[in-house]
């Protein structure tokens, strides 16, 4: 059996009191309380404020406390352009997209968002200034069930097929294709360092994928696969620190974390769902809407934080 020193490269220290600012993974023996302690990462989903409009196949951008959600499909299956802003506790209505649609993708932040693609199949792209949407340059290839990454002036659109396009704030440019064509893909990252994962192949096979690919600004390369194949999942983070959560088939609550090399299963969502939106970071993510399989307005917040834990024997 390996010792702590062999694993961590140092011995467990004996201290009369807990250190003031211990780091993740650090362990020590408190000689005063005669207890073994250490810092572990605690990850969990909790309920946030509900969307004002229940919908699925929407997009969201920004952070956990300053987010923007837009588009989607209503319970009656009609597309919507509804836009809402999140302040960390509740959603408030803003001006709608000019073109109502679902299976839409986005990039940016709450005050500078970008919406593109969607179903009914469109190439339409719109920019949000914190108040209203205005038309931008269209994608070169109309498509829905795609993913997005980046910011309003440096965005990436991928999936919904195998095409990749970048946006510079003015025009979209077609780039290298993905290695595996798929719809219902999730994504994270920036326009030059993106991550695409999961999805479903085209008819007639409708292959469910656990495939993960990394974008370096000019081409896609294969990364390690998700542990659980799924489509229409939520995604957040950056290329080297991403989350995948929810998804289908069947409906999933699983959350996986990517460290730039491999995926690890962590805390499940409170409610299994697919066709949800995702944004934020691996320590503070936001999931909104989706299908449970009924269309939902539920929002969940993911938090990962280091905490001191006392270890006991059993």
Task: Jot down its keywords.
mainly beta, 314 residues, Neuraminidase, 2% helix, four-stranded antiparallel sheet, 26 strands, 1 helix
Describe the structure.
The chain has 314 residues and is mainly β. It has two domains: 4-42 and 305-311, no CATH class; 43-304, Neuraminidase (6 Propeller), CATH 2.120.10. It contains one helix and 26 strands. The strands form six sheets. It has a six-stranded mixed beta sheet with strand order 1-2-3-26-25-24, with no helix packed on it. A hairpin with a 4-residue loop joins strand 4 (59-62) and strand 5. The two termini are 18 Å apart.
Give me the strand/helix succession. HEEEEEEEEEEEEEEEEEEEEEEEEEE
Low-confidence stretches are none
Total tally of structural domains: 2
Tally of DSSP β-strands = 26
- Report mean pLDDT, rounded to a whole number: 93
Write a brief caption for the model.
With 314 residues, the chain is an all-beta fold. The chain is 2% helix and 40% strand.
Write the topology of this structure:
Blueprint (H helix, E strand, L loop, with lengths): L3 H5 L4 E3 L11 E4 L4 E13 L11 E4 L4 E4 L12 E4 L4 E4 L10 E5 L2 E5 L8 E4 L4 E3 L10 E6 L2 E6 L4 E4 L4 E4 L10 E4 L4 E4 L14 E4 L4 E3 L11 E5 L2 E5 L9 E4 L4 E3 L11 E4 L3 E5 L10 E13 L3
Parallel strand pairs: 1-2
Antiparallel strand pairs: 2-3, 3-26, 4-5, 5-6, 6-7, 8-9, 9-10, 10-11, 12-13, 13-14, 14-15, 16-17, 17-18, 18-19, 20-21, 21-22, 22-23, 24-25, 25-26
């Amino acid at each position: 059996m390996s010792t702590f020193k062999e694993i961590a490269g140092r011995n467990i220290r004996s201290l009369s009191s807990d250190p003031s600012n211990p780091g993740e993974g650090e362990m020590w023996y408190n000689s005063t309380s005669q207890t073994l302690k250490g810092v572990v990462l605690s990850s969990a989903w909790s309920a946030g404020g509900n969307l004002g409009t229940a919908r699925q196949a929407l997009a969201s951008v920004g952070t956990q406390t300053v987010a923007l959600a837009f588009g989607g499909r209503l319970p009656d299956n009609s597309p919507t352009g509804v836009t809402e802003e999140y302040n960390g506790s509740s959603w408030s209505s803003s001006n709608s997209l000019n073109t109502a649609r679902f299976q839409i993708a986005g990039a940016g932040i709450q005050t500078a968002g970008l919406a593109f693609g969607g179903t009914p199949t469109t190439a339409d792209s719109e920019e949000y200034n914190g108040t209203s949407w205005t038309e931008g340059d269209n994608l070169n290839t109309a498509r829905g069930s795609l993913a997005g990454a980046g910011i309003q002036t440096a965005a990436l659109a991928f999936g919904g097929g195998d095409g990749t396009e970048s946006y510079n704030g003015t025009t979209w440019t077609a780039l290298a294709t993905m290695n595996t064509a798929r719809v219902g893909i999730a994504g994270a990252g920036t326009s030059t360092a993106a991550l695409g994962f999961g999805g479903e192949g085209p008819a007639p096979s409708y292959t469910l994928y656990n495939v993960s690919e990394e974008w370096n600004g000019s081409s896609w390369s294969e990364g390690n696969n998700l542990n659980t194949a799924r489509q229409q999942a939520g995604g957040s983070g950056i290329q080297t620190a991403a989350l995948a959560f929810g998804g289908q088939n069947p409906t999933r609550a699983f959350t996986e974390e990517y460290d730039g090399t491999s995926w690890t299963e962590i805390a499940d969502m409170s409610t299994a769902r697919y066709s949800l939106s995702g944004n934020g970071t691996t320590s503070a993510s936001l999931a909104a809407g989706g299908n449970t399989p009924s269309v939902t307005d539920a929002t969940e917040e993911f938090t990962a934080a280091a905490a001191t834990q006392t270890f006991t024997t059993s």
